[in-house]
Amino acid sequence: KQEVTQIPAALSVPEGENLVLNCSFTDSAIYNLQWFRQDPGKGLTSLLLIQSSQREQTSGRLNASLDKSSGRSTLYIAASQPGDSATYLCAVRNYGQNFVFGPGTRLSVLP
Amino acid sequence: KAGVTQTPRYLIKTRGQQVTLSCSPISGHRSVSWYQQTPGQGLQFLFEYFSETQRNKGNFPGRFSGRQFSNSRSEMNVSTLELGDSALYLCASSPYGRGTEAFFGQGTRLTVV
């Protein structure tokens, strides 16, 4: 059974810092992995999708990497801004299965 | 292009009642999945529909059911509501399902009193 963990659970940084969020999964036979952000009381906003054959994906200030063999993905946020404050969720899909979500990392970027 | 639309946004129901939630996927998307989000359990998969057929089901009791219509719109129904069913219910749509990017709606906040 796939299990997903995220470290740290919460993070508070000053504006402008580069930061890394970590996601670990127990079953490396994944189909793909998707990163989302969630603002309080709202739905999920898709950030990046990485297929199992890919090593990384980039969108603007965001870069996500995937290392299937070690069961890890990282989300790198460059030059953080207060508007980046949200909960970041990692979701993993195995073949024939639907998303298993991590518990999330709650990020606060202080002005 | 319109996003995923969930209605209603908020619901308050009494224990024992039933409720129906609706999800309209992005135009052209054929896969709709439902998830339950609670503070204690996080996000948990309920079921997935693709071209009107249930393709996968999570570990929830039979009180939770769903369906998908020919226009890809989906509904989920919860019968005999319990206090523990209070949650944010999220719907996700994708073009063909699991290999493609999923887009979520804003959710329906269900409160059972």
Plain-language structure description:
The complex is a heterodimer of chains A (111) and B (113). Chain A is globular. Chain A contains no helices and 11 strands. Chain A is mostly beta strands and 111 residues long. In chain A, the strands form 2 sheets. In chain A, strands 2, 4, 5, 9, 10 and 11 form a 6-stranded mixed sheet that branches. Chain A has a 5-stranded antiparallel sheet with strand order 1-3-8-7-6, with no helix packed on it. Chain A has strands at residues 4-7, 10-14, 19-25, 30-38, 44-51, 56-59, 62-67, 72-77, 86-94, 100-101, 105-110. The mean pLDDT of chain A is 95. Chain B has 113 residues and is mainly beta. In chain B, 0% of the residues lie in helices and 53% in strands. Chain B has no helices and 11 strands. In chain B, strand 5 (42-50) and strand 6 form a beta hairpin. Chain B is globular. Chain B starts with a strand and ends with a strand. In chain B, 37% of the residues are buried. The mean pLDDT of chain B is 94. Chain A binds chain B through residues 31-32, 34, 36, 41-46, 49, 51, 89, 91, 93, 96-104, and chain B through 4, 6, 33, 35, 42-45, 48, 56, 58, 88, 90, 92, 98-107, 109.
In terms of topology, how is this protein built?
The complex is a heterodimer of chains A (111) and B (113).
Chain A lengths: L3 E4 L2 E5 L4 E7 L4 E9 L5 E8 L4 E4 L2 E6 L4 E6 L8 E9 L5 E2 L3 E6 L1
Parallel strand pairs in A: 2-11
Antiparallel strand pairs in A: 1-3, 3-8, 4-5, 4-9, 6-7, 7-8, 9-10, 9-11
Chain B lengths: L4 E3 L2 E4 L5 E6 L6 E8 L3 E9 L2 E5 L6 E5 L5 E5 L8 E8 L8 E2 L3 E5 L1
Parallel strand pairs in B: 2-11
Antiparallel strand pairs in B: 1-3, 3-8, 4-5, 4-9, 5-6, 7-8, 9-10, 9-11
